[in-house]
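Intended use. Records like the one below are meant for learning the mapping from a protein sequence to its folded structure. Do not use them to infer anything beyond what is encoded.
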Amino acid sequence: MSDETHAGAVLYAKDLPRVSDFYASVVGLTVTHREGDHVLLAGRALDLVIQAIPASIADAIEITTPPTRREETPIKLIFPVASISAVREAAARYGGEIDPPHREWRYRGSRV
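Structure written out for the chain above:
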């Protein structure tokens, strides 16, 4: 790890490999560290830790196929990408979902 400081976030996941692969593949984060219970993904300005939910808790969580979108969560992550359309397609391939084009809007000169 470098001395450079980034903002960071931790996501808890029942399926550590699937969730870390999603963020690495869909938004281009780089796996910089991996241990049995967590994966550290790095971007230009954000480190994202995917932390495994302990089995005693994870066993009670049901993940549907396809996964049910959790729209009510109070936190939304933002990642700079070259193409929202390309990321929307990639997210679908990895079991995720990005809002459709009619939900996009402008923020600080960018399309989000």
